[in-house]
Amino acid sequence: MDATLDHVMMRVEDLDESLDWYTTHLDYEEKGRWEADTFTNVFLGPEDVHDEGALLELTYNHDGRSYTMGDGWGHIAVRVEDVNDAYYELMDEGVEDYRRPEDNPGYAFVKDPDGHEIEIVERDHGARWSIDHTMVRVEDADEHLGWWTRKFEYEHTGRWEADGFANYFLKPEGAAEEAMSVELTYNYDGRSYELGDAWGHLAVRVDDLDEGWDQLMTREAEDYRDPESCDDNYAFTKDPDGHEIEVVTS
User: Fold this and answer.
1) Total structural domains in the chain?
2) Known catalytic residue: 93?
């Protein structure tokens, strides 16, 4: 199955404020928009994002609701050539100081207006500010590594093991280095997580929705929202901890 990561969705409380933040500070441009009666979805990314690069989907519900962040989702990470320069460029623009590169050699963090964490990582590939990975916290690393491998044929592309936790990075086999990966963070203390509702889903892109969905069902993925229930435009399954995974076509 060809299942490149297509986008990551987060919910925002003030669409104009969020659009201003991402277009001003990360130089994102609008790649697509879906205006419905009750919500608006806007897709954002750098001007020169790679064909296999992922976009950021902002979902704004028109009823003025607020959201809880939870801790089952972690952050998105964006690529730059120099973390220190990029971080202090954002500081000069008035972005909130969250985690400085001096305290975290090789990376830094800022937050968007809703409190979603944005990690800044140093890479020699990909457009500036393009999404490198999305991190989710998982309660059983073995189960999740097996889930992504069996359901979507992802391969293990990196790991970082510390005293109290491990991070595992996965991508589709043969994916471009500019493609987004999923980072699984596993803490060794057996904690559990709340998903909240400020984060929405990860989306994978397949060539044929029905064929891709049939493969997932054969591989015993959860039948959460099948293509028919989504007007044959997309579908949803869930990982073992309940993170929603959308299946879309290009």
Assistant:
1) 1
2) no
